[in-house]
Amino acid sequence: MSSVQVRNQTPFSHFLFRSEDVRDEPFWVAVVRGQFTFSRDRRATYALRRDPVELRDQFLDAPGTSSIVAASSLVPFKPRADVHLRAVARQSAPRASWRVLLTVGNLTKAASVCGPRYWRRGSDDRWTMSEPEPVVEVPLHYELAFGGTFTTPDGEAIRFPANPIGRGFMPEGFEPSGDELVAPQILPSVEPSMELGQVAAVEGFLPIGRDWSPRTERAGTRDAHWLQHRCPKLPEDFDWSFCNAAHPDLVYPDGYLRGDEWVTIEGVSPEGRITTQLPGAVVWMFVKQGDVPLQLRPLVLDTLTIDTEEFTIDLTWRGLFPAVDTAWLELHAR
Questions:
Q1: What is the pTM of this model?
Q2: At 228, which helix (H) or strand (E)?
């Protein structure tokens, strides 16, 4: 097996690992994580922190049953960039509902948030939804978006595949066991009039789980033939977009980020709109393998995480090269 020596000349943390494609061809993956701070109307600047590259999903609470707040960077390739937002929607005074808007370069996503509300069973056995209670904040977590897991009277758990940890999901043919059911608080940008049992879009700004739709449909065929002949290698029909952990609306439409895009966020601060610019950092590597001349290889910026609670920006760059000979690489940034 080939080995690699790494010289990191950047102010950022890095991680190197070996992977294989669907043809079982090996390659090395270099991941670089840069951390920045930002303030309103100013370009993000280098942070003093140098946290390690995330090697596993980080959860809000219990793993697998709560929102992912930081997605693992231990993925070999992303065909397009992921954009994530960690935030709490806030207002200066209680409101029943308001809009959250995120714009990064050519990407725009909007959602509506509201205070707690409920479906309640009336004396005529009909279900109606209450008006939302006025609030000053709504955490942008998938627990408050449409979805959930319903347990039938027989004990069967029926998951809503696009968000099994949300609220409001009611499978066809069933009703709540009580007289009240909590409704979602994060909704499409144009708030629909929801009936009990109606399926709504899952809205959110955080990463989605590996076992959630639509990521599961992209993981490839993992049947008895795969278990017997290829496991643990990738299925031959594996779709690399499985590695995109962002909400489908937050996978960057133009491929990868340049790194100097403007960012605008509304609805998360009592002080109003937040505007900043990505720092413009660029990362590249020199790779030397065997008798092959020295190669200059760029790293692509494939993950952006914005945190409006800490006013930080997290950037992840990724670069690939063949695992054919003993090599060394040197990482650089400007």
A1: 0.95
A2: helix 224-229
Q: What is the chain's alpha carbon radius of gyration, rounded to the nearest angstrom? A: 22
Q: 319 and 331 in contact (C-beta within 8 Å)?
A: no
Backbone angles phi, psi at 105, to 5 degrees: 55, -120
Measure the CA dihedral 205/209/215/221, to 10°: 180
DSSP state of 248: G
What's the one-letter identity of residue 24? D
> Is the separation of the CB atoms in 308 and 320 below 8 Å?
no
Rounded distance between C-alpha atoms, residue 301 and residue 255, angstroms = 10
Q: List 265's β-bridge partners, or say none.
A: 102, 274
Per-residue model confidence as pLDDT tens digits over 14-28:
999 999 999 999 999
Are 142 and 162 within 8 A, CB to CB? no
**In this structure, is the dihedral angle defined by the CA atoms of residues 8, 10, 15 and 17, taken in order, positive or negative?**
negative
Cα–Cα dist 123/130, whole Å: 15
Answer yes or no: are the C-beta atoms of 35 and 333 closer than 8 Å.
no
